[in-house]
Structure formats: structure tokens, C-alpha cells
């Protein structure tokens, strides 16, 4: 079964990163996704049920998530849901894990600045490095003076929202 879900929530634990013996990068963190609703009588927002998920990101995605995310930040996670049973000496339970396909900051609650990662060929196998030679989606090496007009103008303009 491969159930793809998208969840928004706050990062509840500092992201942790491990490197497997084969060199693959894995980043894990927990998110809390809280249902919110507006109370019609008071007009106040009320927190509802909280769902907890463990997010696992692998290779390039894991390395980028570890470099980008901090505890408390609001994120969007898309990936495959996996329900896993666990037990130790005196306890047992069930955990909802998401094997992440895509991750990002939730821009409804803040801003983010994208920085493309240029990876070296030696890093391809580990997942922490290059997108590889011959990769059609790999970024090209542009000279520093080759910037877009959007990059050249860093001033923001305020506009009224029509609703």
C-alpha cells in the first residue's frame, strides 16, 4: 500500500541526522498538526485534536531538510504514510510515519529564501552530494553576473489585498 498524504504542522523536535554505513543520509523529526476552528459564538480560534507524525527524509532531501529546518517552524510535508507498531521492554504503541517526497516551509506563517545546492560528483552515491554528471535537471554553472531581473531588484512593493 502506498498512501500519499500532505500534512502541515509545526516541527516539534529538533531535526536529527544519521548517515548509514553505506553513506546515505537520513533526517528525522516530529511534527504536530493541530486542527483549528473558529468558534462562531466568540469569534476566537480554538485548537482541536493534535496529530503527531514522525517525518523521515532520505538522501538529498534529508540533507537539505537538516540544513533548512529548526524546531518550532511551520512546514508542509508530502509523502507516503506508514503506520508502524513498536514495543520496548515495558511499553508498546503505534506510530504514524511519513516517508517524505517533498518538504518546505509553510509560507502562510513566514518567509523563506531558496538557495540552490550545487553538489559535487563524489557526493552522488551518498545522497548528500551531486545530482550527478549528465543529469538533465542539474543546475548549470552560471557566471555570477548572470542574474535575473527579479534578483537584481530586492525591494518589495506593498499592495492591498482585495479580500
Automatic annotation (TrEMBL):
Segments for region (Disordered): 124-163
Pfam families the UniProt entry points to: SSB
Biased composition (Low complexity): 124-136, 144-163
GO molecular function: single-stranded DNA binding
One biological process term in Gene Ontology: DNA replication
GO-annotated cellular components: nucleoid
NCBIfam families: ssb (TIGR00621)
PANTHER family: SINGLE-STRANDED DNA-BINDING PROTEIN (PTHR10302:SF27)
Protein name: Uncharacterized protein
Organism: Microbacterium sediminis
Lineage: Bacteria, Bacillati, Actinomycetota, Actinomycetes, Micrococcales
Amino acid at each position: 500500500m502506498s498512501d500519499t498524504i500532505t500534512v502541515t504542522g509545526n516541527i516539534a523536535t529538533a531535526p536529527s541526522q544519521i548517515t548509514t554505513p553505506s553513506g546515505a543520509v537520513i533526517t528525522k523529526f516530529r511534527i504536530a498538526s493541530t486542527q483549528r476552528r473558529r468558534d462562531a459564538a466568540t469569534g476566537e480560534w480554538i485548537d482541536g485534536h493534535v496529530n503527531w507524525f514522525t517525518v523521515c527524509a532520505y538522501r538529498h532531501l534529508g540533507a537539505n531538510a537538516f540544513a533548512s529546518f529548526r524546531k518550532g517552524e511551520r512546514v508542509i510535508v508530502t509523502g507516503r504514510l506508514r503506520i508502524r507498531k513498536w514495543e520496548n521492554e515495558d511499553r508498546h504503541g503505534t506510530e504514524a510515519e511519513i516517508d517524505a517526497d517533498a518538504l518546505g516551509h509553510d509560507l502562510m506563517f513566514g518567509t523563506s529564501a531558496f538557495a540552490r545546492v550545487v553538489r559535487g560528483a563524489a557526493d552522488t552515491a551518498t545522497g548528500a552530494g551531486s545530482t550527478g554528471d549528465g543529469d538533465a535537471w542539474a543546475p548549470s554553472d552560471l557566471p555570477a553576473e548572470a542574474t535575473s531581473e527579479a534578483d537584481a531588484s530586492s525591494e518589495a512593493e506593498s499592495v492591498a489585498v482585495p479580500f
